[in-house]
Design brief:
alpha/beta, three-stranded antiparallel beta sheet, 15 helices, 37% helix, globular
């Protein structure tokens, strides 16, 4: 394993989309093309329901591990104008639709969604639903900060249909928490986890990160032992992505030499994985664990997982609308991203325009490769037996995979690829062999975090 990690631990995408954002064809993209893509997808898929992601960017302080687009402020009066803009953006979308959208999934992300008061969170959701219908099997979820999630917020969101909540824990060690500027006690996490369950949330998730500054094997074992006491239904166990070259990322407060690397970093994951499996968790795709009682596990067993910019989801919707500053929308046929500052976002939406500033319309070949990558990320297998599943670069892909096949990271038989469960750590590398944009490019700067 040590030699394989050294060999394959290279920069690579996380594949929440294909093509990945750095390789979008922004030059030929336009708002008109995006709108046409959006309308096409809506007509095809609205009866099955659509997803909505709402980006709530405000945080009271900067967590230095975070690479998300955020706006740091303690001024809560910003909530009102931002809510109005999100609802206006949604109105701009519904105005170009031929019928009421049927919503199957809503996710509140950030930033810190629980920066907003319970009343204002309710205003956002009720404003969205006012112009929509609900799918019979809808699911609403949100991300909560353990230090500022209140009973009122949990109750209000539950009363309007939220059943899933994810709390950002990261690590319980004080030295690590100080380095990433995210200090929160186990008792506080325990409090909000217990509150959510008392109110009736059916799925409580904790986000953990390995590879953080000053993180040692002893303290990550302590973090898993504390997690054992709360037994969340799901765990997202992310590899820390050190990407200080990304504009606007505040990854500071520590030096690169403070980060565990290579085999040392991977050991943090492998030991944690064994502990989690001993507790009854099953590894789902990449970065995720779930108890067998959770819907994420049940859908993974049926090979019905979906993956988009929100990560793994149990709701396979063709159309996902991203609302808010920096949010990304996905019509399956195209992607569109909103402007990245709140000031510009508010200005453009108030002028009556969609705040989209870049995107990509997928070619026929893009769509084929996208499906292969999605199959691998969700189900650890894909096939090109049928002619319509083949693409021009497939011989090059198969040549690249020979080395991985020799290293027992993939099994290829009868034009079908499978990733063994013991090789899941290398799943991003497998997908990279299908990525024609990545293979054909020679970027001058590093674009992605390391794969392992």
């Amino acid at each position: 394993m040590k030699s394989l990690i050294k060999k394959y631990n290279i920069p690579g995408p996380r594949y929440t989309s294909y093509p990945t954002v750095p390789f979008w064809d922004n030059q030929s993209f336009s708002k008109d093309k995006w709108i046409a893509s959006f309308q096409k997808s809506f007509i095809q898929s609205n009866h099955k329901g659509i997803s909505i992601y709402i980006h709530l960017p405000f945080c009271e302080s900067l967590c230095t591990f975070c690479a998300c687009h955020k706006h740091i402020t303690k001024r809560h009066e910003v909530e009102g104008s931002y809510i109005n803009a999100v609802l206006k953006e949604w109105e701009l979308y519904t105005d170009i639709l031929v019928e009421k959208p049927i919503i199957k999934e809503i996710h509140l992300g950030g930033g810190t969604p629980t920066f907003f008061s319970g009343v204002n969170l309710e205003k956002i959701i009720k404003g969205i639903l006012k112009k929509s219908e609900l799918h019979s099997k809808y699911e609403f979820s949100f991300e909560g900060h353990p230090n500022n999630t209140t009973r009122e917020q949990l109750q209000i969101l539950y009363d309007i249909g939220f059943t899933r909540v994810s709390f950002g824990v990261q690590d319980y060690n004080k030295k690590v928490q100080v380095a990433i500027n995210r200090v929160q006690s186990f008792e506080q996490v325990k409090k909000v986890t217990k509150l959510a369950r008392e109110i009736g949330y059916t799925s409580v998730s904790h986000d953990l990160i390995f590879g953080l500054p000053f993180q040692t094997l002893d303290n990550i074992i302590d973090t898993i032992n504390k997690t054992k006491k709360l037994l969340p239904d799901r765990i997202s166990f992310y590899s820390y992505a050190h990407v200080p070259w990304v504009k606007g990322v505040g990854q500071r407060g520590f030096n690169e030499e403070h980060l565990p690397k290579g085999e040392e970093k991977r050991r943090l994951y492998e030991v944690s994985k064994m502990m989690l499996e001993d507790l009854g968790y099953c590894e789902i795709g990449m970065d995720h664990f779930a108890l067998k009682s959770d819907s994420l596990y049940k859908l993974s067993e049926k090979k019905k997982l979906h993956r988009n910019f929100m990560g793994y989801t149990t709701n396979e919707t063709q159309l996902m609308v991203g609302l808010g500053m920096s949010a990304i929308s996905d019509s399956w046929y195209g992607f569109a991203q909103n402007v990245k500052t709140t000031k510009e976002y508010l200005k453009i939406v108030e002028s009556g325009e969609l705040p989209v500033f870049r995107g990509h319309i997928l070619s026929k070949e893009d769509l084929i490769i996208r499906r292969h990558i999605l199959n691998i990320m969700c189900n650890l297998t894909t096939s090109w037996q049928k002619e319509e599943h083949q693409f021009s670069n497939i011989e090059n892909t198969l040549e690249l995979l020979k080395e991985m096949e020799k290293d027992k990271l993939v099994v290829i038989e009868n034009k079908t690829l499978k990733v063994p469960e013991e090789a899941v750590a290398f799943i991003r590398n497998v997908c990279m062999s299908f990525d024609k944009y990545l293979l054909n490019s020679k970027p001058d700067t590093q674009l992605f975090s390391s794969t392992i």
